[in-house]
Write a structure and sequence with these properties.
Number of strands: 8
Strand order of the largest sheet: 1-2-3-8-4-5-6-7
Structural class: alpha+beta
Helix content: 10-25%
Number of helices: 2
């Protein structure tokens, strides 16, 4: 990173899947070299992050743990949500994310759809240094989601 460089800033409001995918690709490239500041829109992570707050996002990690807060492309938009769990399917990791105020998790996503992890900004410190109770709550949401899903049967 360039000394004294200011993070790049983006306000994410796009709801177009193709535009979001293109933007995510550009932002991932930028985040790999310097932090990216993103303005949060919405209430799904309140009171830990207020609508209109700025958060700093660092580059994507190879693995995420339940409780980590990430920026992820979901439903044609970029969202700031918490990882509740992950699983491997066909040799690739898939992650389930969910806003703290959301009733259900987002659709499973791959690492390529995650911009990166929250590393600072106008947010509660517990989003950066996630306490054990937040990790356990996220894991509980993941286990509850798994318990509600019907068992997969092998196709013939």
């Amino acid at each position: 990173m360039v000394p004294n460089a200011q993070p790049l800033e983006f306000a994410l409001m796009a709801h177009n899947p193709a535009y979001t995918a293109s933007l995510l690709s550009v932002l991932r490239d930028l985040a790999s070299t310097q932090p990216v500041r993103i303005r949060v829109r919405g209430h799904c992570m309140e009171p830990l992050v207020a609508d209109g707050a700025w958060v700093r996002v660092d580059k994507a990690a190879p693995l995420y743990w339940p409780g980590d807060v990430v920026v992820v492309a979901t439903g044609g938009r970029l969202a700031l949500h918490r990882v509740i769990g992950g699983y491997r399917r066909r040799g690739r990791w898939r992650w389930l994310t969910q806003g703290d105020a959301a009733v259900r998790p987002d659709a499973a996503t791959t690492r390529e759809a995650i911009l990166g992890k929250v590393a600072g900004g106008d947010c509660a410190p517990c989003l950066i240094h996630v306490p054990l109770r937040h990790r356990l709550r996220a894991l509980g949401r993941f286990l509850a989601f798994c318990a509600r899903r019907p068992a997969r049967t092998p196709s013939a």
